[in-house]
Automatic annotation (TrEMBL):
PROSITE patterns: HTH_TETR_2. This is TetR/AcrR family transcriptional regulator. GO terms for molecular function: DNA-binding transcription factor activity; transcription cis-regulatory region binding. Residues 2-60 form the HTH tetR-type domain. The keyword DNA-binding applies. Residues 23-42 bind DNA.
């Protein structure tokens, strides 16, 4: 039985992403713990949601810090895409969950993370890796949207977790044009 807050958050994030109205009882049941254990760790749903947001924001910071390192942009993009789930969760939960949006610190951190993502995309554009004919904000939003789609498809069993980074990279670098795919 999971009783560690980190493990419970790991389980709760996809549950809430699929069912935003999930009660504490539903979250506990689906996470495989008792409601009492969940409430001991997170006294209210708002505490749980805010802890989830904190975890997601911390994970995004960690991934971006690695991608911002002084390494070739191709390697940095590979590192960013390889660890895409926090960006999916940011897009899926932090921007839309009312309990998070009501916390100015979380909203401010989310905006900072998105700004850093845009700056990373601009770095890729400057290096000639990413298209310059599209705004960096659009490409950063596209990355987050692709991450969210890949994460959801992986959770639902429609895609393997090892496929997702390759698919995200292919769309980011080549779009959906047939001439870049295996078949025409």
């Amino acid at each position: 039985m999971r009783t560690d807050a980190t493990e419970v958050l790991e389980s709760a994030i996809p549950i809430l992403a699929k069912d935003r109205a999930a009660s504490m009882q539903v979250i506990a049941t689906r996470a495989g713990i008792s409601r009492a254990t969940l409430v001991r760790l997170f006294p209210t749903r708002q505490h749980l949601v805010q802890a989830m947001a904190q975890r997601i924001l911390d994970d995004c910071d960690r991934v971006l810090t690695r991608a911002e390192a002084d390494i070739p942009v191709e390697q940095a993009l590979a590192a960013l895409v390889a660890d895409y789930p926090p960006f999916a969760q940011l897009w899926n939960l932090v921007y839309v969950e009312p309990d998070v949006l009501g916390v100015p610190e979380a909203s401010t951190r989310a905006e900072t993370i998105f700004t850093r993502t845009v700056e990373f995309i601009e770095r890729g554009q400057g290096a000639g890796l990413l298209r310059k004919d599209m705004p960096a904000t659009w490409l950063a939003s596209t990355f987050c949207g692709l991450a969210e789609t890949a994460w959801e498809l992986t959770l639902e069993g429609h895609m393997g977790s090892r496929q997702a980074p390759d698919f995200i990279t292919a769309i980011l670098l080549h779009g959906a044009a047939a001439e870049h795919g295996a078949e025409r």
